[in-house]
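Entry:
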Amino acid sequence: MEPALSFPGQAEAARAKLAELQRRTGRKPNIVWLLVDDMGFGDPGIYGGGAAIGAATPNMDRLAREGLMLTSAYAQPTCTPTRSAILTGRLPVRTGLTRPILAGDKIKVNPWQAEVSLPAVLRPAGYTSILVGKWHVGEGVGMRPHDVGFDEFYGYYEAQKEISQGVDERRYPDLVLNPDRLARLRATGSSESLVHGVRGGETRDVSKIESIEDMAEADRVLAEFTVQKIATLAQSGKPFFLEHAFMKVHADNHASKAFKGKSGSKFAYKDAVVEVDALVGEIVAALDAAGVRDNTLIFLTSDNGPQLDSWPDSGYTPFRGAKASAWEGGVRVPAIANWKGMISPGRQSDELFDLMDLFNSCLSIAGVSEAALPKDRYFDGIDQTSFLLLDDGKSRREKVYIWAETDLMAMRMWEYKIHTKITETHAQWLDIDMSTKANVGLAPWLFNLYIDPKEQYPVGHRQNAWLASMAAEMKAHAATFKAFPPKDIGLAQ
C-alpha cells in the first residue's frame, strides 16, 4: 500500500461517526460519483468560473457550499487512465491502461483479468453497483463494465467525439462524405450505440447515434435513467454504488434542444456546462426524493483538465498546461465531497487528494477492510475517509505522483511540485497535437505552487531546501516498480 500519514485519533473519530450513522439508519451508506468529462478546474463558479465566464453552475456550487471543496485534487492526465485508476486504486502504468483506448487499438492483454475493481470488492459487502454514461476502459468482452464488477451498465463505451465524428459532416467532411473511409472506421468495431448490459446476462444495443442531434441528447437520456434507477435502488433496501459519468463536456459538444443558447456565452461548450450542472441538480434531487440523501456520499469531479486542442470547444483552467500534460492544468481538477449530515457545510481544503483515494475511501465507508485486497500488487490509493468526514480532518496523503503514459513526470509534495520531465507545447491551443515530452536537463524543476501556481519560475536552487529530498522520494516511488513490474497491454507508444 502507498504509505499514508497516520492520525489515529482522527481515524477513530471517523469510524465512530460511520458506526453511529449505520446504527441510526440500519443500512450501509450509498456512494454516488458524478464524473464530468474534460471539465476544467476553472469551469465551476465556486472555482472562479461559472457566470463570470459565461456558464453559471448553481448546482455544483451548492454541492460545494454544502460540503467539502477540495482545491488540490489530482486526476491522471487523460480519461482512460483516470477512469481505471479510481476503480482500481492503482496507477495506470501498473495496470497498463496508460492512455485512452481508441478505434483501431489492439489490446493484447485484458488488463481487467488481473485487477480487482471497486464494484467487485463491494459486492460481497451487499452493494449493487451501476455505471451510467461513458466507460472508455475497453469494450471487448471481458473489459465491459458489467464484466469487471458492475451489476449493470447503461451508457456508451466511447467518448462523444469518437461516436459523433461518423455523423458530423460539418466537422469531419473528409470522413462522413467518403463512404470508403467511413466503412473503414466502422470496420474497427467501435460501438456507436447506447448499450445496456447486465452482469451475467444480456448485453444489447438500446439505440444507435444516427445524427449529431442524437448525440446532443445523450446526457439527458442517461440522466433520466439514473433518476429512475435511484428510486428503484432506494426501494431495494440494499446499499448501492452509482457512478454517473457524463458524456459532456468532452468535445465535440452539441447543445441539446433544452439548453441551446442557455449559457451566457451561447457557445456549445458553455451550453454543455450549463446542461451538466442542471442534470447534477436533478440527480441530487432524486436522492432527496428517494429519502436516501442523508445516507449517501456524493463526490463530483472531472477526469482531467480541459482539452484545449478543441478550443473554443473546451474548458478553462487558471493553471499552465491542459489535458495530457503533467502541468497543473492537465491534472488538477475540481473535486467536491457532499454528504448531508456527515460532511459539514462550508468546508474547503487545499490538502492533497488523489482521485485514486476514492477507491480506498469508498471501501472504508462501505466497511470493507483493505486486508481483503490481494497482496500480490501495489495499491496507490489512500483511505481518506477521516479527511473527508471530520471538520478538522487532515489529508493522509503527503505526495501525489504524476505520470504521463509510461513516464514519471512530476511529484507534488506540500505546496511544492518537482518535474523531472516536462511537456513542451509548440503552438497555442495544441497541448496534445503539437506537444512533446522532454527531460529537464541539469536539475529537476521545482516550483512553489503557492507563490507560482502557473509553474513559471523554478526555485529549487535559490529558495527551496527540498530539491534533493523530493528527488529521493521520486526515486523511491520508481523503485516500487521493481518489486511490482508494470503491465504492458499494448497501449504504449
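The chain has 15 helices and 17 strands.
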